């Protein structure tokens, strides 16, 4: 810019002395000199993220977790975690003059007398349900696509722990109001603790501060709910995200996608803008759901009394499997060294724990069976891992069968059935259902593999029927594009493990460990002839394509 001869030049572009940076820039330089923020941002702000819709499942979990924390902070300002008995004189007229705990009274106060309190309670509760549901579906996506394989086994464990801790955080959370419904759930938990052999009574007295319900469990659950479990979960979320950044995202097979790259959009500005919009979308959906769909109306249940049980009391869906196992189990009891062992409760809890452990260690089991030590960044199509997919569906079958068992009384009354008939159905389906689901799912996966092979060799059916000069009718097939061919043939096919020769060149017999025999058998079960359809070879494709395979 030029200036008039007698005009004094302005100090700088923004009216500041030349050579002096704006305050914000100086602050950024100061922080960068001490924290290295510029180099960190430069290295990570352009990180590429795949754009597949299924990756949003993890984002729903993250955003609902943040919403739970935000609404939980608001609720703690008004909640009193005390079991001291008081008389109610609040805004809810039907309970005027009733004796109840301070915890129940403060929850009523939040619901009826605090501006926006009921909406915050409902957002908090719905957010917890959506968080655990999102974790459940997200873990299934990771499982069925094989995203848990090396180097992501630890991230699978972190996600699994988040899911389990979320279950117990939800349980402690809905137990805090001290209403009749949540009190029934706490009573159920007390019975489960008492079933632990030898030490069950001591554990119960320790948790409840004496004979159930005691005077301390709300205060103790409150500390666990707002401090202990969320703190651990927050640390796991941070560790989970760090490993996602470090390992890079997985991606589905496609042109240009390899084990050494990621195809997608950069974190800044594209992905950040999408993530920000998606956060407010999740928040908006939760707020709308909370405004129109009532959840946990404690005033309809009333305060908890140990001698009362609310009609139709059911656990939250994520605890339904544990209760279903106990309801379906016969009421077995034995006497052992002067102690009564309640096997009808302890065995189902033991089975529930073993199922959770099996889910947690599955990545290591599959890695041991395959002997695969390679890193995997390309996801499997579930049909191409037939045995794994069948196991997943079998587990889901167990879960939903036990969910029916957890509400056997509701199922019986709503469908006018005998509760004994429902219970026996659950007992039988628990053993038969997973086997049927495994077989059917595996056959479906193999059928889809055959269809993919046929598509590669013969192309896509167009629905056009053509008559040849000699009178033969054929359906015209359209050859697949290179992109489609790549998607259908890029998956890795494993060769089942073999024991190998048991006698060396000197005639000395080699002892084969039992673990190795088991691994070979499982490997054949996973990748034998009955578990995967061979991919078309290049020669087969050329032979078909060069002849009359594509009409």
TrEMBL record:
Residues 9-24 have a biased composition (Low complexity). The chain crosses the membrane at residues 55-79, 125-144, 156-176, 188-209, 221-246, 267-293, 341-365, 385-404, 424-445. PROSITE patterns: CYTB_NTER. Keywords: Membrane, Transmembrane, Transmembrane helix. Residues 1-24 are annotated as: Disordered. It is an enzyme of class 7 (translocase). It comes from the Bacteria. SUPFAM superfamilies: Transmembrane di-heme cytochromes. Signal peptide: none annotated. Its EC number is 7.1.1.8. Its cofactor is heme. InterPro entries: Cyt_b/b6_N, Cytb/b6-like_sf, Di-haem_cyt_TM. Residues 27-253 form the Cytochrome b/b6 N-terminal region profile domain. It catalyses: a quinol + 2 Fe(III)-[cytochrome c](out) = a quinone + 2 Fe(II)-[cytochrome c](out) + 2 H(+)(out). This is Cytochrome bc1 complex cytochrome b subunit. It comes from Streptomyces rubradiris. The lineage of its organism: Bacteria, Bacillati, Actinomycetota, Actinomycetes, Kitasatosporales. The gene is qcrB_1.
């Amino acid at each position: 810019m030029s200036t008039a001869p007698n005009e004094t030049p302005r100090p700088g572009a923004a009216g500041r002395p030349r050579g002096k940076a704006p305050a914000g820039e100086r602050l950024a330089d100061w922080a960068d000199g001490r924290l290295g923020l510029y180099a960190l941002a430069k290295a990570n702000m352009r990180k590429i993220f795949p754009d597949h819709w299924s990756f949003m499942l993890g984002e729903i979990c993250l955003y609902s977790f943040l919403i739970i924390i935000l609404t939980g902070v608001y609720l703690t300002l008004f909640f009193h975690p005390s079991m001291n008995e008081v008389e109610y004189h609040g805004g809810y007229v039907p309970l005027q003059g009733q004796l109840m705990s301070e915890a129940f009274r403060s929850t009523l106060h939040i619901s009826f007398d605090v501006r926006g309190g009921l909406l915050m309670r409902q957002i908090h509760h719905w957010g917890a349900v959506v968080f655990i549901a999102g974790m459940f579906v997200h873990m299934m996506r990771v499982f069925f696509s094989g995203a848990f394989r090396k180097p992501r086994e630890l991230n699978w464990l972190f996600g699994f722990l988040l899911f389990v801790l979320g279950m117990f955080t939800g349980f402690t959370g809905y137990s805090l109001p001290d209403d009749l419904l949540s009190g029934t759930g706490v009573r159920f938990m007390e019975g489960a603790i008492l079933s632990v052999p030898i030490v069950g009574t001591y554990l119960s007295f320790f948790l409840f501060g004496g004979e159930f319900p005691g005077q301390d469990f709300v205060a103790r659950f409150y500390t666990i709910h707002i401090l202990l479990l969320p703190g651990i979960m927050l640390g796991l979320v941070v560790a989970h995200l760090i490993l996602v950044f470090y390992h890079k995202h997985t991606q589905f097979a496609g042109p240009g996608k390899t084990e050494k790259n990621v195809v997608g959009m950069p974190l800044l500005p594209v992905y950040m803008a999408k993530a920000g919009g998606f956060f407010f979308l999740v928040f908006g959906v939760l707020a709308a759901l909370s405004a129109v769909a009532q959840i946990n109306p404690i005033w309809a249940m009333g305060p908890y009394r140990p001698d009362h049980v609310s009609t139709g009391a059911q656990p939250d869906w994520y605890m339904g499997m544990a209760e279903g196992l106990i309801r379906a189990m016969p009421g077995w009891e034995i006497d052992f060294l002067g102690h009564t062992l309640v096997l009808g409760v302890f065995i189902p809890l033991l089975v529930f724990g073993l199922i959770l452990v099996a889910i947690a260690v599955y990545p290591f089991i599959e890695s041991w069976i395959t002997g695969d030590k390679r890193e995997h960044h390309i996801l499997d199509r579930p049909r191409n891992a037939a045995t794994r997919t069948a196991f997943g569906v079998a587990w889901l079958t167990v879960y939903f069968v036990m969910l029916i068992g957890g509400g056997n009384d509701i199922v019986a009354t709503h469908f006018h059935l005998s509760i004994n008939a429902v219970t026996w159905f659950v007992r039988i389906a628990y053993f038969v259902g997973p086997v049927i689901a495994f077989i059917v799912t595996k056959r479906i996966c193999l059928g889809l593999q055959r269809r993919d092979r046929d598509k590669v060799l013969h192309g896509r059916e167009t629905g056009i029927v053509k008559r040849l000069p000699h009178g033969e009718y054929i359906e015209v097939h359209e050859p697949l594009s290179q992109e489609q061919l790549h998607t259908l043939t890029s998956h890795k096919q494993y060769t089942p493990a073999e024991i190998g020769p048991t006698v060396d060149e000197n005639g000395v017999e080699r002892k084969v460990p039992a673990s190795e025999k088991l691994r070979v058998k499982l490997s054949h079960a996973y990748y034998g002839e009955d578990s995967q359809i061979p991919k078309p070879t290049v020669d087969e494709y050329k032979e078909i394509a060069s002849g009359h395979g594509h009409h």
